[in-house]
């Protein structure tokens, strides 16, 4: 979703006249809102890299990551996707036995403790 959302953006109607970057945008105009911020290094360092940690803590600035759009016309599938992910995680955690691939995995501190090789695991159905 972050790298290639299903749609590139959407048209929205400007509800209040505004000036942006020196340009006057009248009320009623149609503006195209885009997901290009997903790949903007100003907001996401290394935007092509899969890095879920970028969403930890405060996460990205508002309206820079919008895979489901925003506002009253946001994608109706947003909540479905959230529940689907939670259901998947619940099943992986409760219905599989987790085993470390390398039981002697070393830990490095940067500043929090993290496994040197990323903590590879083998899943086996219970």
TrEMBL record:
Gene3D superfamilies: Cytochrome P450. Its main location: membrane. Its cofactor is heme. It holds the Pfam family p450. It is a single-pass membrane protein. Heme binds at residue 75. GO terms for cellular component: membrane. InterPro entries: Cyt_P450, Cyt_P450_CS, Cyt_P450_E_grp-I, Cyt_P450_sf. PROSITE patterns: CYTOCHROME_P450 (PS00086). GO terms for biological process: sterol metabolic process. Keywords: Heme, Iron, Membrane, Metal-binding, Monooxygenase, Oxidoreductase, Transmembrane, Transmembrane helix. One of its GO terms (molecular function) is oxidoreductase activity, acting on paired donors, with incorporation or reduction of molecular oxygen. It is found in: Membrane. Belongs to the cytochrome P450 family. This is Protopanaxadiol 6-hydroxylase. The lineage of its organism: Eukaryota, Viridiplantae, Streptophyta, Embryophyta, Tracheophyta.
